[in-house]
Each structure stands twice: as C-alpha cells, then as structure tokens.
Predict the structure.
Amino acid sequence: MKTNLKKMPNTQELQDLVFQVRRDILRMVHKVNSGHPGGSLGCTEFLVTLYNEIMDLKEGFDMDGIGEDLFFLSNGHISPVFYSVLARRGYFPVEELNTFRLIDSRLQGHPTTHEGLPGVRVASGSLGQGMSVAIGAALAKKLNGDDHLVFSLHGDGELQEGQNWEAIMYAAGNKVDNLIATVDRNGQQIDGPTEKVLPLGDVAEKFKVFGWDVLEIENGNDLEQVIAGLNEAKSRTGKGKPVCVVMTTEMGNGVDFMMHTHAWHGKAPSDEQLATALDQNPETLGDY
Amino acid sequence: MTKYTDQGKQDTRSGYGAGMTELGRTNPNVVALCADLVGSLKIETFIEESPERFFQTGIAEANMMGIAAGLTIGGKIPFASTFANFATGRVYDQIRQSIAYSDKNVKICASHAGLTLGEDGATHQILEDIGLMKMLPGMTVINPCDFNQTKAATIAIAEHHGPVYLRFGRPKVANFTPVDQKFEIGKAVMLNEGTDVTIIATGHLVWEALIAAERLENQGISSEVINIHTIKPLDEEAILASVKKTGCVVTAEEHNYLGGLGESVSGVLASHFPAPQEFVATKDTFGESGTPEQLMEKYGLNNKAIEEAVLKVLKRK
C-alpha cells in the first residue's frame, strides 16, 4: 500500500496516538483558555489515521507537495487536532504545541501559511473555502502527471456556506476523481444542532445527486471503521468521480462531559475539568 | 510637449487576451480560469491553443478563486479572470483568506472595471475595486492605460511571485504606449516633463491627462504627466520628485476618490511633502447606464475635468 512510510502503525499504535493527541488538544486549549476542543476531539481518529495510515507522504515539507498526498483542513477551527497530528507526525517539534494561540507563534488560532508552519498549505477559518482549494490542488496534480491524492475535511455546519456547492458541482462536472472530501457529520454547530440551525438533511444523498461517489463511515470515532472507510475511499478514486466520505462523529469524543452537546465547540476546560478529561485519556507517547 | 500618437483604438481587455496568448506559448506553468466570460475576457486563443490549461468554472467566482489558490500548490500560475465587480467585491473573503493571506501566486485579472463598462449600469460598474484590493497586505495592484501596456503587464506579472490584481476595461481607447514595451511593476512612467503641475493618472485616464496637458500648454501651463500603472506598490520616489518640482498635483482615475490612486498619493504627500491636490475621480457615488463618453463627462472623468482640476489646484499653490 504505502511505499515510503518508515513503519506501518498497527491499530494499537494508532490508538495510543489518539489518546496522546486528545491530551494535546485538551492541554493546548486549557493553557490559553481558548480554542475549539469539541470538533477537534471528534476528528482525532480521522486525522490520526489519515496522517499515519492512509496518506502517502514524503519526508519533510514543501509547499508544492509534488509526489505525495495532500490534505486540506477546511474547518480550520479544529486547529488543535491538526497541529497535534502534524507535530506527532514530525512536521515540527511537539514542544511547539506549547505556543498555540500565543503571540509570535506559528500556531495561530486558525491554521495559516503566513508564519511558515510546516504541514499547512492554505489558511482556513473563514468557512467554506477548503474544497475549492483542494480541487485546485487536485487539478494541479493531474496537470503535473502526479497520481497522488488530495484529501480534505469539512465540518457539516460548514456546508451551509454556498461556496461548497459551487465546488461540489465543479468537482463532479469536471471529474476531479483524485479528491476525497470527508464531511465531519457531528450534527452540531455553534448555535445548536445543525438540523435546528439550518437543516442539512441527507448529506450523502446531496453529494450523490451532485454526481459524487459517496460512502459513509457510521462511527468516525471507531479506528477500525475509519481505516476501512478511508481505504475504501482510496479504492474508489480514479474512476471519474470525486469521492465523498460522510463520517458521523461525536463532538468531544473521549471526554465524557464534552460529548452529546455543542457546548464545547469553542470553550476551554477549567483546571478541574482538564484533570478529569486527562484522567480519561492516558499519557501514551509523552506529553509535550 | 512630448507627442503621443494613437496607433488605433483598442480595448485593454484585448491586451490581456494578447498577453495570455503569448504566455500560453511561452510559460507552461500559466493556467487560465474564467467564470463564464471567456468572450468578454478575450482569452479564446489561449484556450484554443492550450485547452488542458484552461478551467471553466461557470458562474461561480468564489469557487474560481479557491481553485486558483489550490492550483498554485504544484507550481501553477493561475490567471483567474472575470468582470472587476465579480473579481473583487463578490469574492473578497476568498481572495483575502485563500489567496492574499495564504500568499498564493494567483493573478486576479479583472475586465470591465469602472464607468466605461457603459450601458449595463451600476450593478456591473465597480468603482471601489482598487481600494478593496490595495488594502489587502501583499497584494500588488496594477491598472494599465492601453492595449500595449495591458499586454505587457499581463506578461510581466507571470514573472512576479505573489498575488496580483490586474485591472482593465471594456471600451476601445487610444493605444499610444510602445509595442512590446518592458513593463516594470511599481515603476512610474514619465510621459511628459513639466514644471507647473503634476498630473498623476492611471488606466483610461492617462490618455485624457495627455490631452488635458496639451490644452494647458496652449494656455502657457507646463504639466508633468506621470502614468502610474502600479497603484501598489506605489512609486513614491517618482511622485515626490515631481511634486517637489511642481508644488501641486492632480490625480486622475476611473474610481471612487475614496480608496483610489488619489488617496494613495495624498498619503505619500502628507507624510513627506504636503502639497495641494485635486482629485479627478468619482465622488462616492454609484454609476448608471449610458455610453462610456456620456458617463465620463457626467461623472467628471475626462480631459476637460482634468484641465479644470489643474486650473483649480494652481490657484491653491
């Protein structure tokens, strides 16, 4: 499957990484009393799997990313999980997670390229823009004769932004079949459940009628399901259709009091809450 | 006064098309995007000769800007083109986050800027685009004056790394700058040396400034005429050198006085050499339907308006 990964993590290694990344997320947002833990925790299994099991990555980082798979985070507010996974994958020192959201840091509140943080290829945060950028990068790969893939992640609430539907229409109409866009279907957004704020309805069906090949991961917090789902998604590329993965996750997953609510979308835990949360997630690879 | 000859009226957008044709033949990394306005942007030849390097996005400008940003990842140099209104105001946040803040090498190429779009009216006549684009950190803003200069600018920006806003227009106007000129981003072009007043013009107003200068010469007034094709970065040195000599300035542009070239010039003067300035620009208003000539007359953007502004500013010296 992969050719240039140094080692193939097994599920236990991925699970250890998941615990450690959750700890990173919690400690990062706690330290600066800001940031977005809920969505970050919900997408931990996905990003850990993507970067350590699914993507074909070169050593080091260059902006053009020719000859490797690319990832674009469209819902940039889940930067804590993105930064932790990038650091743990070796893009920059894990100690730098200490600087999250601080002045003069490369780890801005939302991911940017401006400070030159390795692993980030476009700024995101203002929602709805990432799919278009991912399509552009996928088109560049086709022009370059580079048969690597482009992955992207989108919040479900983010699909309320109209630009997504321009992009969804374009990708299908132009057979951008080297693109795998995953939707984090956690059903929550800042003001409450997505189906109350502005109903998204059947997301998978919507992508299908726009001409995408769609598969679903019923539990995006189950490592085995995420690995199987993303491998299945890869097998469907190159067949004339962009691939969409609708992945159901639980916001705040892994911390009992952060689950089943949108309350932790953009709120940091107190000292006491942090201690409780960390108790539920053992230190596996060493805190930064 | 230095004489300039109109080599035959042409539209600046055709200068863009001609530049794209050349880039298609000479630079394999250049790609073009358009949002359902291929004919208006005059890029048919590029598309015909390099179909694999053209991306038709349909009427979806936000997506076009994002795709353009993504194409740079992998080394492409995207030229994303549509009307100025849809290339700026409609997609400001996409340009801000995915292109400017992300330092993407995207060239935003905007036709039908300003009032000279004509009959379509104010919905399409953007007079705020220079301001919107110049406020973005890192964005280069260029407004060439004729066909030859637009072609040269199109070719030049492919060699410049970083986001660029290239603004041009719809009507056929005098084509008077040299064929195959070298275009230097950020370098003002001295068109006529003078001693009484500095006229700093951009875009379609440069030719009008030359006509005004000629009439003023007949009245014994010596005008220095400078073509500022690059509004950002602004050639402050050239502006200051001239105004220190003449002691007053008239700026002329097809744009709102708020946010335009005139405002940039006054900023330079306020900081380094305060001097009287008159603004030939629209006065915080939308446009309307009409012929380009009627609109330029009604909104005070022609050679007559420049002449009047010079006479006014001279009294303030």
Observations:
- The interface with chain A takes residues 31, 52-53, 55, 57-58, 60, 62-76, 78, 93-94, 96-98, 101-104 of chain B (CB under 8 Å).
- Residues 202 and 228 of chain B are 5 Å apart (CA to CA).
- Residues 12-26 of chain B form the longest helix (15 residues).
